[in-house]
Design a protein that fits this description.
alpha/beta; Aspartate Aminotransferase, domain 1; seven-stranded mixed beta sheet; globular
Length: about 375
């Protein structure tokens, strides 16, 4: 059947009809007074969502672009940085740091396991000369469904006193409570196609006063990614370069929807969907890839051996037109991932779980009650 495609991946995520209609509006001049009003409302909404009084800057980039901007605006060639690596995206930030000539030290954990916070404490406490300039962390590691303990790692960074904390919150911003000002986070990057409920194309960087002080000493050349330009434009409810006008309309509408739902309800919904997804997997005898105490609220990774994970994805896509995410790099074919991020409801998850049950039965699984997954998910949602 046409137009029945259902996204259950950690990005792009489903887009509400109200947002789609906003995207379809006629664009207006991005230097007009009317569009300045749109930017002003968006800027206030972004501060609300980020729980901050700091500037939240909107860039026409992906989440990777937001993270790169968050690194090159506040650091310099040769700076020593610690990068947490326990998945594809932590590894990506280490690669970016290395590409820009930073002295990059990886603190690694096995994919599927959370970062060891004590390793950060040990490294930071040993740095008596204050050579470490930043700690770079992926909060929700999308590739594995692991939520790293950002709050504890940040406490160790704060005890160090000198280092910045730079956070990839691409799949946790809007899905998990991150009180940026209360925790004193310095640079927090995110992307539009995740918890924001709009299509890809916008990246966001929240910047603290401490990070802006570091900006003054950064030695990297930059132009389009110069966050100082965005800060000056923000103060005038404008943008330094041509913004994606229609995406901004969509963002305006999405933020209005989120404010009506309320932060506590948004976080509770994501927690509920996470618990239901994991309960369903366990009831079906499927192995969860991330431990319960480090479960991402954006995506649940499942290791379905002996069934091939790619067969599950292909079958559920062909028969039910539901998109699940696959494993990345060495995990391809070994895990699949259920996204429950952004505009995803209890109904959506129950639909996906029931179709998953039918799919694994069709592929030969017979070691569970055929209704066990839906029952477990329904109980968790209740």
């Amino acid at each position: 059947m046409e137009d029945k495609h259902m996204l259950m991946i950690p990005g792009p995520t489903p887009v509400p009809e109200k947002v789609l209609l906003s995207l379809a509006k006629h664009p207006i001049g991005h230097r007009s007074g009317d569009f300045s009003k749109v930017i002003a409302e968006i800027n206030q909404g972004l501060k609300w969502l980020h729980q901050t009084k700091n500037e939240v800057l909107s860039l026409t980039v992906s989440g990777t672009g937001a993270m790169e901007a968050g690194m090159i605006n506040f650091l310099s060639p040769g700076d020593r940085v610690l990068v947490g690596v326990n998945g594809k995206f932590g590894d990506r930030w280490a690669q970016i740091a290395e590409a820009f000539g930073m002295k990059t030290e990886r603190i690694s954990a096995e994919w599927g396991q959370p970062l060891d916070t004590e390793e950060f404490r040990t490294k930071l406490e040993a740095d008596t000369n204050k050579e470490i300039k930043a700690v770079i962390i992926t909060h929700s590691e999308t590739s594995t469904g692991v939520l790293n303990d950002l709050e504890t790692i940040n406490k160790h960074v704060k005890a160090h006193g000198e280092a910045l904390i730079i956070v990839d919150a691409v799949t946790s911003l809007g899905a998990y409570n991150i009180p940026i000002d209360d925790w004193g986070l310095d640079v927090v990057a995110s992307g539009s196609q995740k918890g924001y409920m709009i299509p890809p194309g916008l990246g966001f960087v929240c910047v603290s006063d401490k990070a802006w002080a570091a900006y003054e000493n950064s030695k990297y050349p930059r132009f389009y990614m110069d966050l100082g330009k965005y800060k000056k434009a923000n103060a005038k409810d404008s943008s330094p370069f041509t913004p994606p006008v229609n995406l901004m309309y969509g963002l305006q509408t999405a933020l209005q929807m989120m404010q009506r739902e309320g932060l506590e309800n948004i976080f509770a919904r994501h927690q509920r969907l996470t618990k239901a997804s994991r309960a369903a997997a366990k009831a079906m005898g499927l192995k969860l890839f991330a431990p319960d105490n480090a479960a991402s609220t954006a995506v649940t990774a499942i290791e379905p051996a002996p069934i091939d994970a790619e067969k599950i994805r292909v079958n559920i896509r062909k028969k039910y037109d539901i998109a699940l995410a696959g494993g990345q790099d060495h995990l391809k074919g070994k895990i699949f991932r259920i996204g429950h991020l952004g505009f995803v409801s209890d109904r959506d998850l129950l639909t996906a779980i029931s179709c998953l049950e039918a799919t694994v039965i069709e592929l030969g699984a017979d070691n569970f009650d055929p209704k066990a997954g839906v029952k477990a998910a329904a109980a968790a949602l209740a």
